[in-house]
Design a protein that fits this description.
CATH superfamily: Vaccinia Virus protein VP39
Helix content: 25-40%
Order of helices and strands: HHEHEHEEHEHEE
Largest sheet: 7 strands, mixed
Structural class: alpha/beta
Number of helices: 6
Number of domains: 1
Number of strands: 7
Radius of gyration: 16 Å
Strand content: 25-35%
Oligomer: single chain
Shape: globular
């Protein structure tokens, strides 16, 4: 798939973007404000990439499993050499695990996932009772956020749509909140939301 190779090719310079670093920081800040993370928790970050979000979340939890479809990105995650982060190459929606997790986080990945029903079904399956999701992504936009929409399946997400799909797959206390705007050069600001819910 071209999407995977394009992320592999961009992995080397991915973290040099101040916008991406700030984006991940703002998402991390919103997650820790919304979710009480503890050292007993085992958490998944799907679409973990180079670990811009993972490295901060991992400081608060027992373990973090970073899943991504880009080997190049995961090499950068592994290079962090954080004892409680383990990387996993593959499609999150196809991930199999006997172990159940306390939480699932994600930053700017959901719009790359075509089948949202499959995603929410997988998240519910992998969580312990009472486990949480904290998913950050784009609010609805006009398709201009990415310069190239190859591998982009959704131009952001509406609140009503996500709350409905979360509820349909058994999640409770679902909450969609705008957390900040991201500014891209020469473009209008794009809203970023955090969707949180519990199993």
């Amino acid at each position: 798939m071209s999407e995977k190779s394009s992320f592999d090719n961009r992995a080397e310079d991915w973290d040099s973007s101040s916008m991406r670093v700030q984006l991940a920081q703002n998402i991390y800040d919103a997650i820790v404000k919304e979710i009480k993370l503890t050292k007993e928790m085992d958490v998944i970050d799907f679409g973990a990439g180079t670990g811009l979000l993972s490295r901060n979340i991992a400081l608060h939890v027992n373990s973090l499993l970073g899943i991504d479809t880009s080997k190049g990105m995961l090499e950068k995650l592994d290079a962090l050499e954080m004892d409680n982060i383990v990387s996993c190459y593959g499609d999150f929606c196809e991930f199999k695990s006997v172990k159940k997790f306390d939480g699932i986080v994600s930053s700017m990945t959901m719009h790359h996932i075509k089948e949202l029903d499959k995603l929410f079904e997988k998240m519910h399956e992998l969580l312990k009772e009472g486990g949480f999701i904290a998913i950050a992504d784009l609010m609805s936009e006009d398709g201009t956020f990415h310069g190239d929409n190859d591998g982009v399946h959704h131009f952001g997400f509406e609140e009503e749509y996500l709350l409905k799909i979360a509820k349909a797959h058994g999640f409770k206390e679902a909450k969609y909140q705008k957390i900040f705007d991201v500014q891209k050069e020469g473009k209008d600001a794009y809203g970023i939301f955090l969707l949180s819910a519990k199993k």
